[in-house]
Amino acid sequence: MTQQVPVQVTVNGTRHDVVVEPRLLLSDFLRQDLGLTGTHVGCEHGVCGACTILLDGEAVRSCLMFAAQADGHAVTTVEGLASPGGLHPLQSAFHEAHALQCGFCTPGILMTLVPFLRDHPAPDEREIREALAGNLCRCTGYQNIVVAVRQAAADARAHSESESARA
Amino acid sequence: MKPAAFAYHRPASVDEALEILHAHGSDAKPLAGGQSLIPAMNFRLARPGVLVDLNRVTELDFVRRDDRGEIHCGAMTRQRTLEHHTDVIRGAPLLAETMPSVAHAQIRNRGTLGGSAAHADPAAEIPAVLLALDARFIVRGREGTRSVSAERFFTGLFQTALAPGELLVEVVCPPPPPRSGWAFLEVARRHGDYALAGVAAVVTLDERGRCADSRITLLGVGEGPVLAARARKALKGEPPTPAALREAAQAAAAKDVDPPGDIHASSAYRRQLVGVLTRRALAAAFERASAGAGDATKR
User: Which of A21, A67, A149, B56 has the most Cβ atoms closer than 10 angstroms to its Cβ?
Assistant: First the structure.
């Protein structure tokens, strides 16, 4: 009889009460059980970064966690970024700067960059490239990704300045 | 599914974890941050029958500075916490400064101090830094608690002094002595990759500005973190002149290591890196020591 572990996890704001086999990876749970296939699976040993998600707001590899370990935590996947009103500002910047070609690495890169930009509102190029070092892109090239990140950071700063000017 | 099946336990305390480890013997494996163990399980290189998940053992997640200035870190302290915690930055700055070189932020958000130490990967930064800092390892078993020096803790390739059924619960870093300085340097093909070679150095000057002692450790070039004894001997009592640093670096490269060669770098290239990195790390560490950056009394 295979062990089943009860898990309560909030994914993109929706609570799920499930039971899982202990060896089920969080990445496979998100993709196969919840159908959230935006989280991509590349190397499955923590090198490529395609499966990066947010766990309680911090970027982690979903292929290096068991679904059972997400019990009691909040997960955000790329599907949770955009609002009904439109794309997340980072997604818009990627669109505008042509920062994706095939798009396979993009969800992981976006989920890496959301907390990075929260903690580094005005990153320089070296900081951006270091932040991207844990995400492999094999076709777009990093040049336009860096451009998009700078653009998104500048937009966010301009936005918060106009907000504070209005207040 | 990628990993082989296992029985899963998530204890809430060290005592509970020790009971489970004892009950299952060598079949059981503790799971800390999982950033090395889960990849190995995904490849089925590791197939533990029983996994004891320590992520709910909150008593192992702490950082504390005692009145002697020693920094006590629980084994389940995340590497990201070490990077940003004020007590670590002030009391064990070499440890905090090395963290950005440990894999990537996504890994450090999960990876733990104790997990990396107990895994004892010869290419990992944390074992080398803890050896350079002369840290103590607090180990608990059902029979009691013991303290193990860094030199005795790392015993070989992925080997430590931990006996079956024991858990590493805490690492204690002594404060930097007065007139000491430190540095960490490594060369990796890409930021966050495993280094081809790396060096951690802690040096202390005497009143006359000569080297009173040094702990230089090397990673990626042996069966575990290597304490460079010949380089230490070469420096002892010497003023930190460029010639003295060069001689110590040459001793490290020529006598303290016999690096392996693989597809990433030849043995000769790793040896060359050891020489260059040791010299540069020593220069940076002595500069800090002279500037009094390591003088705890000045803080």
Answer: A149
Task: Kindly state the average pLDDT of the residues B24-50.
Answer: 97
**Across the interface, which of A3, A44, A64 has its CB nearest the CB of B34?**
A64
Q: From the candidates B44, B106, B108, B190, which should be mutated to test the interface with A, based on the most A CB atoms within 10 A?
A: B106
pLDDT in tens, A104-149: 999 999 999 999 999 999 999 999 999 999 999 999 999 999 999 9
Was domain A89-166 assigned CATH 3.50.80.10? no
For residue B4, the 8-state DSSP code is P
Do B192 and B239 fall into the same domain?
yes
Split into its structural domains, chain B has a count of: 3
A28 in the Ramachandran plot: left (φ > 0), alpha (ψ -120 to 50) or beta? alpha
- Are the Cβ atoms of B106 and A61 closer than 8 angstroms? yes
Query: Which two three-digit tokens encode residue B39?
Result: 């990849």
User: pLDDT tens for residues A36-52?
Assistant: 999 999 999 999 999 99
Helix (H) or strand (E) holding B289: helix B267-291
Which pLDDT value is given to residue A1? 65
State pLDDT tens for residues B183-240: 999 999 888 888 999 999 999 999 999 999 999 999 999 999 999 999 999 999 999 9
Task: Find the CB nearest A5 among B8, B190, B191.
Answer: B8
Structure ipTM:
0.95
Tell me, yes or no, if the two domains A5-80 and A89-166 fold the same way: no
B249-291 pLDDT, tens digit per residue, is 999 999 999 999 999 999 999 999 999 999 999 999 999 999 9
Angle of helix A142-166 relative to helix A89-96, nearest 10 degrees, comes to 130
Q: Could you tell me the residue ranges of all domains in chain A?
A: 5-80, 89-166
How far apart CA A69 and CA B171 sit, in angstroms, is 25
Which residues of chain A approach chain B closer than 8 Å at the C-beta? 2-3, 5, 21-25, 28, 44-46, 49, 52, 55, 58-61, 63-66, 68-69, 112, 116, 129-131, 133-134
Report the residue of A5, A69, A120 to disrupt the B interface, i.e. the one with the largest count of B CBs within 10 Å: A69
Type of residue found at B270: R
Asked if A66's CB is within 8 angstroms of B8's CB, the reply is: yes
Place of tokens 């320089």: A124
Task: State the count of interchain CB pairs (< 8 A) between A and B.
Answer: 89
Between CA B193 and CA B261, with CA B256 as vertex, the angle to 5 degrees is 45
> Do residue B42 and residue B131 come from a single domain?
no
**Which CATH number is A5-80's, of 3.10.20.30, 3.30.56.10, 3.20.20.60, 3.20.20.70?**
3.10.20.30
